[in-house]
């Protein structure tokens, strides 16, 4: 490992990754990798998570291609120094901000979108001119080994390396001195990452998770119920069967509308996944037995089991958990205190939908808040009175693909952001450059101090 890292540091020091040409060449090769290996990617993601090729294209392949193409076309603008206004006091002077690469960066990623969560940050690291080590998640082994075996055939091996392994390898990597660490994963591991980074004062971006609420304001959106129900089901069970950091974790609705909402969701579930969702190829599988066990334990809690109003079937052998809806599980049960990260949707009823603000604020800051409402007053209150990585009205998940917006968390859901230009920024230091001339000299700035200089 030491030899490999020294090679990467050397590549950075000798300026190998700095030119626009090098960055563009890597991005073009990354696109080529995706295109050449599309079938292998489909196979690996099916093996790891049982994802359908359409879902893979939408959530992984398409996302990476879009990011790489966007970076390719914007890179010349992103790397250009930005001229800045310099106050008269400095006259004559020129000021600019120059984005410079950090150096050697470490990217540790998660398993639920094993391709895009690894390659999307890498696109930022390459665009910004860094050398990089990518450590994909061991929980998606087929994708991890595909990346390790084939990515080096496309990218500059003297500047970018893929290291496979689990927590032990990750811990070894964290012992090293990095110029930036970009971590996607759980808040508990993020604490380890941050404390290791602190030893070298290494800056970190932490893309974490949490419990993302959705507010359903029936009174203002009932005329769009069919669309809203599709977007809720699509956002809860669509991407990776609920194993998504920005998937809806729980849903808040007024008590009197809960049963109508549940019936609408059931109708959409049937339409999307058929009478028996176990036979559907349109829903991903749970990543491994450990996670099936984790979600089963949440559901089998005697306080929770009686709250199941739809689904509940678990097939451990096939790593399948039926899309499941719970009505009013106790809020001190694990299912309401821990991130579910699976195909289970608790619905919590309130007397008034406005109470959802207090409910959300009583919990750690989520990565995303969703609100189905046309009530402008409620919208304003949600925006100004809650804190989260993002707020999306009347849809779910789509903020992830809107590259003009930053994607990232706040508080327990992380800090820093990426996507589009924000990915470039995440891997760049904005260097301030001030150029003065010898033309004018203000003597009062120098000692010896006297009353005249004090007045000046
Ligand atoms: P995790 O924290 O267990 O693992 C993430 C990465 O850290 C993996 O590569 C793993 O090998 C490594 N790791 C595990 N233990 C480690 C240790 N002790 N020291 C150093 N590295 C270690 O998370 P996960 O199970 O892969 O993902 C689930 C979590 O990630 C959820 O909380 C989810 O919300 C979050 N997530 C966030 C995003 C986002 O973009 N914000 C995306 C996906 C997942």
From TrEMBL:
User: Gene Ontology terms, cellular component aspect?
Assistant: cytoplasm
Taxonomy of origin reads:
Eukaryota, Viridiplantae, Streptophyta, Embryophyta, Tracheophyta
- Its name, as the record gives it, is Aldehyde dehydrogenase
Q: According to its UniProt record, which residues of this chain constitute the active site?
A: 207, 245
Q: Which organism is it from?
A: Cucurbita moschata (Winter crookneck squash)
List the catalytic activities from the record.
an aldehyde + NAD(+) + H2O = a carboxylate + NADH + 2 H(+)
Keywords for this protein: NAD, Oxidoreductase
The segment(s) forming the Aldehyde dehydrogenase domain are 9-433
Any one Pfam family here would be: Aldedh
Q: Which GO terms describe its biological process?
A: aldehyde metabolic process; response to abscisic acid; response to water deprivation
Q: Which GO terms describe its molecular function?
A: aldehyde dehydrogenase (NAD+) activity
Q: Which family does it belong to?
A: Belongs to the aldehyde dehydrogenase family.
């Amino acid at each position: 490992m030491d030899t490999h890292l020294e090679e990467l540091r050397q590549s950075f020091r000798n300026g190998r990754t700095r030119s626009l040409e090098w960055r563009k060449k890597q991005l073009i090769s990354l696109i080529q990798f995706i295109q050449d290996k599309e079938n292998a990617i489909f196979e690996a993601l099916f093996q790891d998570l049982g994802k359908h090729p359409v879902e893979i294209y939408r959530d992984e392949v398409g996302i990476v291609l879009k990011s790489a193409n966007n970076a390719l076309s914007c890179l010349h603008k992103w790397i250009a120094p930005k001229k800045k206004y310099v106050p008269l006091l400095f006259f004559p002077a020129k000021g600019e901000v120059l984005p410079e690469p950090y150096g050697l960066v470490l990217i540790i990623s998660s398993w639920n979108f094993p391709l895009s969560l690894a390659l999307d940050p890498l696109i930022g690291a390459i665009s910004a001119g860094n050398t990089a080590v990518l450590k994909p998640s061991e929980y998606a082994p087929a994708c991890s080994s595909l990346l390790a075996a084939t990515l080096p055939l496309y990218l500059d091996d003297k500047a970018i390396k893929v290291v496979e392994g689990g927590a032990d390898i990750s811990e070894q990597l964290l012992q090293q001195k990095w110029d930036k660490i970009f971590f996607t994963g759980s808040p508990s591991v993020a604490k380890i990452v941050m404390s290791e980074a602190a030893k070298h004062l290494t800056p970190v971006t932490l893309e974490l998770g949490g419990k993302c609420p959705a507010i359903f304001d029936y009174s203002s959106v009932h005329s769009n119920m069919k669309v809203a129900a599709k977007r809720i089901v699509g956002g809860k069970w669509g991407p990776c069967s609920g194993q998504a950091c920005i998937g809806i974790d729980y849903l808040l609705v007024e008590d009197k509308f809960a049963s109508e909402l549940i019936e609408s969701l059931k109708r959409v579930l049937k339409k999307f996944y058929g009478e028996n969702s176990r036979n559907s190829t349109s829903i991903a599988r749970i990543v491994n037995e450990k996670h099936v066990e984790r979600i089963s334990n949440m559901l089998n809690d005697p306080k929770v089991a009686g709250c199941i109003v739809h689904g509940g079937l678990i097939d451990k052998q096939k790593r399948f958990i039926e899309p499941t809806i719970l009505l009013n599980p106790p809020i001190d049960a694990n299912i309401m205190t821990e991130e579910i990260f699976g195909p289970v949707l608790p619905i919590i009823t309130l007397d008034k939908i406005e109470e959802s603000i207090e409910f959300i604020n009583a919990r750690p800051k989520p990565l995303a808040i969703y609100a189905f409402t046309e009530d402008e007053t409620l919208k304003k209150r949600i925006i100004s009175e809650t804190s989260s990585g993002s707020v999306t009205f009347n849809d779910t998940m789509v903020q992830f693909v809107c590259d003009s917006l930053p994607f990232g968390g706040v508080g327990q859901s992380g800090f820093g952001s990426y996507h589009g230009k924000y990915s470039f920024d995440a891997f760049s230091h904005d260097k301030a450059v001030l150029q003065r001339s010898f033309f004018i000299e203000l003597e009062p700035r120098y000692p010896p101090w006297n009353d005249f200089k004090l007045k000046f």
